[in-house]
Amino acid sequence: MNEDRPIPYRPLTDTPADQPDERRKGVIRNEPGQPFEHYCPECGRWGSFGFNCDSIKGIPGIWYCGKHKALGERIGRLS
Length: 79
Fold this sequence. Notes:
By secondary structure, the chain is α+β, with helices and mostly antiparallel strands. It has a domain of 42 residues. It is built from 1 helix and 4 strands, in the order ββββα. The strands form 2 sheets. A two-stranded antiparallel ribbon has the order 1-2. A hairpin with a 7-residue loop joins strand 1 and strand 2. The longest helix has 10 residues. The chain is flat.
C-alpha cells in the first residue's frame, strides 16, 4: 500500500450540511489532508460561527449554525 496516497474524504453522514443531524452534533474534525469540519453542538448543522477558537494555536473552539449563533455568543462572553 502506498503511504503517500491521501486518504479519501468520507462525510460523517449523507445528510446535507445545512440540515440538522443528531449524529453530527458538536463534531469537529481536523485531520491532516482533510477538510476542517465543524458542526453545531445544538443541532448538527454546519457551524459557520466559531467561538473561542484559534487556528494558529490549534484550538478548534465551538462552532454554531446561524440559528444557534446567539447561544455561542453568550457562551463566548462567559469564557
